[in-house]
Specification:
Blueprint (H helix, E strand, L loop, with lengths): L10 E12 L2 E12 L3 E5 L6 H8 L7 E6 L2 E2 L2 E4 L2 E4 L2 H8 L2 E4 L11 H11 L5 H14 L15 H13 L5 E5 L7 H16 L3 E5 L3 H7 L2 E6 L2 E6 L1 H6 L4 H10 L1
Parallel strand pairs: 3-10, 3-11, 8-9, 9-10
Antiparallel strand pairs: 1-2, 1-4, 4-5, 6-7, 11-12
Length: 261
């Protein structure tokens, strides 16, 4: 198992009865989840089960319809007063997001910037950090993801796997306490998947708290501290990955795993 030592089990993420609807369509129907600091939580499930929507609610890219989400003890997106929730101003939400890194299926790199410039952009523009200090950190991060030799390359000069590794370095540049990965390998050619997963394994070894929506069952089995199976907007089953994969308790989990294993 990766992650924090047993003594450090405060929840980094706590979701309580989270609902999310888009008009009449209920996508999340009461999600409860806790992820301890330093743990890797892998989320699996069929398309349309609400996995990506839940991930986007954690950093308030989507506003919850009901329920609450805390990151490191801080209520996300809202202030609670007298039992009522009041939405935070956009500036306050942006401040919360700084400590939550997110990596998407699509790399979303700025095409007119080099790899180094992409990694530097948020700390310089958003956090107003000194450019020289950020440049050194960006170089170190690109080295960490195995791309020291591609610092001056533009996105169109990089493979999909390399672009995704730049996207991970870019998220890490803001020194997040939590990393969210939304199917980070699903847009990659099969031979490029491993290089991205290797970077994520390295992060896990270093104790980064991670929630990973993924179809990579092998990664979940090897790296995850917990495995969550979602279907139809709810958490159907969760537990130690090897246990859930080898001996799923629920019929829906068994049917899903039978298709993907």
């Amino acid at each position: 198992m990766t992650g924090a030592v047993a003594g450090d089990r405060r929840p980094m993420v706590r979701a309580e009865n989270v609902h999310k609807s888009f008009g009449q369509l209920a996508v999340l129907k009461g999600v409860d989840l806790e992820v301890a600091a330093g743990q890797v939580c892998c989320v699996i499930g069929p398309s349309g089960s609400g996995k990506s929507t839940f991930l986007r609610c954690i950093n308030h890219l989507e506003k919850v319809t009901a329920g609450r989400i805390w990151v490191d003890g801080e209520l996300i997106g809202y202030r609670e007063r007298g039992g009522k929730l009041y939405e935070l101003r956009e500036k306050e939400v942006a401040a919360q997001r700084r400590s939550i890194g997110m990596v998407f299926q699509r790399f979303n790199l700025f095409p007119h910037m080099t790899a180094l410039e992409n990694v530097m952009e948020a700390p310089v523009r958003v956090a107003r950090e000194p450019r020289d200090a950020v440049r050194e950190r960006a170089r170190a991060l690109l080295d960490r993801v195995g791309l020291a030799h591609k610092m001056d390359a533009y996105p169109n000069e990089l493979s999909g796997g390399q672009q995704q590794r730049v996207a991970i370095a870019r998220a890490l540049a803001m020194r997040p306490k939590l990393m969210l990965f939304d199917e980070p390998t699903s847009a990659l050619d099969p031979e490029l998947v491993g290089e991205v997963l290797d970077v994520m394994k390295d992060l896990a070894r270093d104790g980064m708290t991670m929630i990973v929506v993924t179809h990579e069952i092998g990664f979940a089995r090897e790296v995850g501290d917990s495995l969550v199976f979602m279907d139809d907007g709810v958490v159907v089953e969760q537990g130690p990955p090897r246990e859930v994969i080898a001996q799923p308790r629920h019929e829906r989990t068994k049917a899903f795993l039978a298709k993907v294993l």
